[in-house]
Design a protein that fits this description.
Shape: globular
CATH class: Alpha Beta
Structural class: alpha/beta
Number of domains: 1
Number of strands: 8
Helix content: 40-55%
Strand content: 5-15%
Largest sheet: 8 strands, parallel, barrel
Strand order of the largest sheet: 1-2-3-4-5-6-7-8
CATH architecture: Alpha-Beta Barrel
Order of helices and strands: HEHEHEHEHEHHEHEHEHHHH
CATH topology: TIM Barrel
């Protein structure tokens, strides 16, 4: 099966469980991976934003990736989150990983620097050239303060080899549709927003890299498969079943919300690392109620 077909469906942006003292909880991480794989998702994404990767040391990143790969045991592909705002440092960072068991690299558009569209193009052109695995673009303007436009995305898709798709989390459906309409045939358009996954697939998208599926992998991945098959009636039922959950999961920040759900269903503690803190009391109570239903 081609890499593009392997990554159609539901990927999960894994959280990094922490103990109360702030150290990585590897037993909980193993439990989480097994919970998600048993939930029939298509692939896992390690060391992304939801994994609080910005707060992990170099050794912790390597150890977390190794734990995920060992727990997954080749049952599903693993995509590595590897991006940043220093192009050459990202390229040097490839040397720190063993890519033999990595399916692809998910690389976030540069943040803080606020580069021009030409700068973003050149950034990805160089990363794709040096990456040992296929690259998935990641557009999340709410975090980067810089939108990867449809025009630049399409330019990369048509001109840059080794780029196979993008995770689109702009929340702009018109932008998503423009990309879907004009992209190369085998270029993946992946939702980066759980609540917009169904409409993006309805427009021709290829799936999702989900936060929700950390806690609810079985039904959410089934929603995605139904939508991809054109079973809109069943997909809509599952979509609306999770809509209130999604709202509270992001009401006071990610991954605080999903960790609160995972805590309530017995997967891991709710601990996050500073500068993040536990979700507020009101959200805690709402999540407690939703998780018990």
């Amino acid at each position: 099966m081609s890499i593009v077909n392997l990554l159609r469906g539901t990927g999960v942006a894994l959280v990094t469980p922490f103990k109360a003292n702030g150290s990585v909880d590897f037993k909980a991480l193993e439990k989480l991976v097994n919970h998600i794989v048993k939930g029939k998702v298509e692939y896992l994404v390690a060391l992304g934003t939801t994994g609080e990767t910005a707060t992990l040391s170099k050794k912790e990143k390597a150890d977390v990736l190794e734990c995920i790969q060992e727990a997954a045991d080749k049952r599903v592909p693993v995509v590595l989150g590897h991006g940043g705002n220093n192009t050459h440092e990202i390229i040097r960072g490839f040397d720190g990983y063993d890519f033999s068991a990595i399916a692809a690299v998910l690389s976030v558009s540069p943040y803080y620097n606020k580069p021009s569209q030409q700068g973003i193009f050149e950034h990805y052109r160089l990363i794709a050239k040096e990456s040992p695995k296929p690259v998935i673009l990641y557009n999340v303007p709410g975090r980067t303060s810089s939108n990867l436009t449809a025009e630049t995305t399409l330019r990369i898709a048509h001109e840059v080899k080794n780029v196979i798709g993008m995770k689109e989390a702009s929340g702009n459906l018109e932008q998503c549709m423009k990309i879907i309409k004009n992209k190369p045939k085998d270029f993946l358009v992946i939702s980066g927003d759980d609540a917009l996954t169904l409409p993006i697939i309805a427009c021709g998208g290829d799936g999702v890299i989900s936060v929700l599926a950390n806690a609810y992998p079985l039904e959410f991945s089934e929603m995605v498969r139904r939508a991809l098959r054109g079973d809109c009636k069943k997909a809509r039922l599952l979509h609306y079943k999770h809509l209130d959950i999604i709202e509270q999961m992001f009401a006071d920040g990610n991954p605080g919300g999903v960790k609160e759900f995972l805590y309530r269903i017995g997967i891991c503690e709710h601990a996050v690392r500073l500068p993040l803190v536990r979700v507020n009391k009101d959200v805690q109570e709402k999540i407690k109620k939703l998780a018990s239903e």
